[in-house]
């Protein structure tokens, strides 16, 4: 029996992404038809029953977010799809955009109907700009078939979808920075509150959801929220698209039921990762993107669910699973992660901007025999604590998660080149 599941990925590789009729033959747009026979409150109740957690990384319950927005006064309400997939090791949203875009558009149309939104925006990652024209063409075909645009399915409801191309800034994956960028402003995070549901795009109530989150909505309505929940974990229903990369044999996108597989299954099962390449041993894995936790082989039997991973000090995050073998230096890897955050920090706040730079200097010294002291290790811990507590947004707050969690499992590598006193540092650097 297959360990994989076909909800979002149904038809991928078999149905042409732009083929409206073929998509209908596998149940496409049936959920939209059903939605338009229901009240917005009924649809929200199904999403709540499904316990769908946001698939972009924050894992906030979609049903609660939708219910909150439903009761906020003010029109128009906008739908914004976060397709700014900038997390290294993550490519599951690209899979949806390339292989099953009609499922995403159907999910957006259902969300639009719930909030009577006249317009939806897809904020497309700058590096995915090659997809823009094809997506616009598919949107036009869906409009011609009556599933988007004016008077959807003969109703009084109309929805236009606009695609905005980002410029390649990782920070714009943060929802408020994304909205600023969509408005033509500098892509920097906003102060919250007010929350985006209340004062979002163009200062109007706004729903911001990830690509995968919106693509899950049609199946929730077709199956019913309770049945969707039962396919996954009791605390987080349905499936999760994971991006498997690194030193495993079979890299790629896999759709798995939440709560049914372990990390060992994901990395070693012949139907998924297939084990470590070149006969080498697993050294560590990095979950949820660069801002996620580093995991150790001792944690391989942890069940892949939001609840179980959190209890183990890990996280689902964006769904990335980066596998590293025994040939990789943990310090070199962490230095590369840190360089990514230095490059992508917007520079708005001191803890993130300067903290990352100082961490980089310490990591550099830790790689040179005799160049770092135990004082450097203490400073590293203090910098991590300060960044986590005082950074303005999630980028700075999570930039050192990989270092912090790697310290728990690979402390000996951090200490390998360290000497006891500052006089040794002076000798080492001449």
Summed up:
The protein has 430 residues and is α/β, with parallel strands linked by helices. Helix content is 42%, strand content 13%. The termini are far apart.
Query: How many distinct helices?
Result: 19
How many strands?
11
The biggest beta sheet reads: 5 strands, mixed
What is the level 1 CATH name of the largest domain?
Alpha Beta
Could you tell me the strand content as a percent range?
Answer: 5-15%
CATH topology of the largest domain: Rossmann fold
CATH hierarchy: architecture of the largest domain: 3-Layer(aba) Sandwich
Rg, rounded, reads 23 Å
CATH superfamily of the largest domain: NADH-ubiquinone oxidoreductase 51kDa subunit
Our count of domains comes out at 3
Structural class: alpha/beta
What are the defining features of this structure?
de novo design (two linked rop proteins), 42% helix, Rossmann fold, five-stranded mixed β-sheet, globular, 19 helices, single chain, 11 strands, alpha/beta, four-stranded parallel β-sheet, 430 residues, Ubiquitin-like (UB roll)
Description:
The protein is an alpha/beta fold. The chain has three domains: 20-229, Rossmann fold, CATH 3.40.50; 239-325, Ubiquitin-like (UB roll); 330-429, Up-down Bundle (de novo design (two linked rop proteins)), CATH 1.20.1440.230. Helices cover 42% and strands 13% of the residues. The chain contains 19 helices and eleven strands. It has helices at residues 20-25, 30-35, 40-50, 62-70, 92-99, 101-114, 132-144, 175-182, 211-223, 225-230, 263-268, 306-311, 330-344, 350-366, 374-390, 394-398, 401-409, 411-415, 422-429, and strands spanning 78-83, 119-124, 160-165, 206-210, 239-246, 252-257, 282-287, 294-295, 320-325, 372-373, 418-419. It has a five-stranded mixed sheet with strand order 6-5-9-7-8. It has a four-stranded parallel sheet with strand order 3-2-1-4, sandwiched between helices. A two-stranded parallel sheet has the order 10-11. Strand 2, helix 7 and strand 3 (160-165) form a beta-alpha-beta unit. Helix 3 runs antiparallel to helix 4, helix 6 packs across helix 9 (211-223) and helix 14 (350-366) runs antiparallel to helix 15. The longest helix is centred in the last third of the chain and has 17 residues, at 350-366. It starts with 19 loop residues before the first helix and ends with a helix. The model is unreliable at 424-430 (pLDDT under 50).
